[in-house]
Structure formats: C-alpha cells, structure tokens
Amino acid sequence: MTDYSLPYGKSNLTFSLPDNLQVDVIAPVQTPAALDPVGLVNHALLHPAGGSALPALSPAHRAAIAINDKTRPVPHRHLLPPLLTTLEAMGLSPEQITLVIATGAHPPMRESEFAAVVPQEILNRYPVVCHNADDTAALHYLGETSRDTPVWINAEYLSADLRLVVGNIEPHQFQGFSGGVKSAAIGLAGRTTINHNHALMTDAFSALGEFERNPARQDVEEIGAMIGIHFALNAVLNDHKEIVHVLAGDPRAVMAQGIPLARRICQVKVAQPYDLIIASPGGHPKDINLYQAQKGLAHACLIAAPGATVIIAAACPEGTGSPGYEAWMAGMRNHAQVLERFAAEGFRIGPHKAFQISRDASRFNVHFLSQIEASFAERLLLNPISSLQPCIDAALARLSAGARVAVMPIASATIPYIEQSA
To answer: How many CB atoms lie within 10 A of CB 70?
Structure first.
C-alpha cells in the first residue's frame, strides 16, 4: 500500500491505495517560490507590462484598489505594501487610498474579518471598505456590454481618479483564468451584472483555460474597459500558494504575459480518462465553502471516464456560502429535477451552483466529504460520506482490471486535459 495526502481545510487527510494499481497524481508542476517576493513586486511595478506605468497624480486625486476577499489565496502581505508605498511616493496620503474588498456575489465580509485579508498594519493606516452586490444605492450604472450585460459597479470605486486591481492569475472553471480586470469587473459588480455575465458559462467556449474565445471572460474584459481600470498587479502562485511570478501594468497586457506563465505551472496532460478520481479543491481557502469547493469537482470531472467515481474532500467550514443556493435546493429530489428546473427558470446566481454540481453528479458517481451536516448535505444531493478511506475502498472493489486511478490534491488550481482531445 502507498499513502497519499490531500489538503482539507487548514490540515491534511491521508489515505492508502494498493501498489498494484495504476495511480497518477495530477497536480500543478512543482515550482519553487520566489526567493524575494517583495523584490519581485517592486521589479514588476518598475517594469510594467505594456509599458503602462501608473499615471501622474495631483495632490487632490484619490486612488481605489480592488482586492479579493477571503475566498481567494491572494498574497496581499507581499503585494500591497510595495504598491501602497509607490502610491504614497507619487503624492497620495493614506487617506486618499481606499482598499475595496471585492466580494462579487459572495456575502459581504464583516469588518471584524478584514484582518483575514488585509495585514493589520495596512488596516491601521488606510481606509478599507467591503463591496455589497445587493446594495443598489451604492452602485453606478455604466450601460451595457456588446453581450447585453447591464453594468452596475461600486460607485465609490468608480469615483476614484486612479482605479487599480490586485489579484492572482489562476485557472477558472468558466472564465478561463482569473486575474486582470476581473477583480473589479465581477468583484465590484452588482448582482444583476454578475448574473448576466455568469449566464454565459453555458457556452462551450466558457471553459477552463480558455481566454480569447471565451465569451464570459471577454465580457469581463469589456466591463473592465467600461470601468476604466488603469493598472493591475497580479501574482502567479505555485501549488503551495507561494509567489512565483508578479506582473503589473496594463490589465490586458498583464493577462497576456501572465496566462502562459500560469498555464506552464497548472496545465497537466493525461493520456486517458480515469475510473476513480480522489480530489481536493486545494484546502483553505479553496474549500472554505461549497460555493468555492465545487470548482474542484468541475476540474476533476474533466478527466473522468463515463460512469467514473469522483470523491471530493472539501472541508467547507462555512457551509455552502450561498443562502440562495440552499433555498433553491429545497425539495429537490434528484439531479435530473435540478437540471430540468434550472433550464426552465433560466440562469440565476446561487442556483447556478446547483446546476454545476448536478451537471457533473448526474454523469459520475460523486461523493463529498465535508464538515457540512450529513442530513443537510443529503438534502443538497451531495451524496455525503463521513470518512475517506472506506469510500475509496468501496470504489476500488467496484473497479475492473486495468482501471485507472487519479489523485488530484489541488484540483481547483489544475488544468487537466486529455491528450487526444487537445
């Protein structure tokens, strides 16, 4: 027997597989962290992508920086201090620089939670506020994109003279990649905007790893242009959530340079689909709630054989992360009913998680290990399990000779693809 490990919340789970099985570990390429991450950030700020340095400011100007919320592993402790120092060196006082936590459609963070995202020394010195997608009085309308997305954006962010975004460039299940303008274009948008953009995920090209042909992502790019985002600061991380690359400058140029770097780390080619996949989204914060953990399931299912068993270990200490999803799932008896109702009612944020889970769970034998109470998880059709090894052993007993098994410890940060379909 050989032991394997999966991230689970802020700890790890171990399990064993027989040595006579063909087992592949599908994970990002092992990449060393930058020895001097802050130096890397400073270098990026001095050598901006696209030649787009920060514009000149007057003493009366204000800057606003969109930063990701607690569901994203953005290394703000390395990224923010050099950027803030640069802005102050350009003549802005701390009071003129506002950090806006970009929650998108996630529940707004309480002020007591801000320290989980922003280093305390920054909280003590700069104004920090949190976006609320449902606070319509705090949104400003900019018009519609060419795909008819109505663009409502955080008014405080829009009112700043200099608008910046900070985040990571990493795989995203239907936006292709996160990063660039997305932190503001979705993170600081109203629910109507997010709902319309995310409805584009049903397009075949709204897929993991797609960018230029991706209608959902290109809609985001158009929203970013309408907002007028001046500058992006983005990191590319390794499998330990450590900085490997940093890019700064024009958001589109940052994405153009950053995507190949992220792809080099995250994209993994496999020869054939797998009959059993044992996966984790990647631990905290990728499994902070089901809303985030579902992404690991979607990535794992990309390389699952028809009828395969997919076991997901995701702690979900904050439950589902979506009251709208929970309410919508009341009374749902099976995945076919979920898919039928979703198709009949049309796209809505929250219920879209039910669609995404049922889309995969209706094709594969999916099991969830989490901290979500078992009876509630059953009502959500999650097929919950209480322990990893017994479920694995039962799945192994059903496998035929020559079956293929994959372990995906960081599924949400992995772009797996089958060689013959590439």
So the answer is: 19
- Number of structural domains in the chain: 2
191 and 305 housed in the same domain: no
8-state DSSP, 189: B
Q: Are residues 286 and 150 part of one domain? A: no
> Are 76 and 192 within one domain?
yes
Regarding whether 92 and 188 lie in a shared domain, the answer is: yes
* pTM attached to this predicted model: 0.91
Domain of 136 in residue numbering reads as: 55-229
H or E element: which one contains 101? strand 97-102
For 245, 266, 368, the CA distances from 34, given in Å and listed in that order, are 7, 17, 35
Give me the tens of pLDDT residue by residue for the chain, a chain 422 residues long. 999 999 999 999 999 999 999 999 999 999 999 999 999 999 999 999 988 788 888 888 999 999 999 989 999 999 999 999 999 999 999 999 999 999 999 999 999 999 999 999 999 999 999 999 999 999 999 999 999 999 999 999 999 999 999 999 999 999 999 999 999 999 999 999 999 999 999 999 999 999 999 999 999 999 999 999 999 999 999 999 999 999 999 999 999 999 999 999 999 999 999 999 999 999 999 999 999 999 999 999 999 999 999 999 999 999 999 999 999 999 999 999 999 999 999 999 999 999 999 999 999 999 999 999 999 999 999 999 999 999 999 999 999 988 999 999 999 999 999 986 44
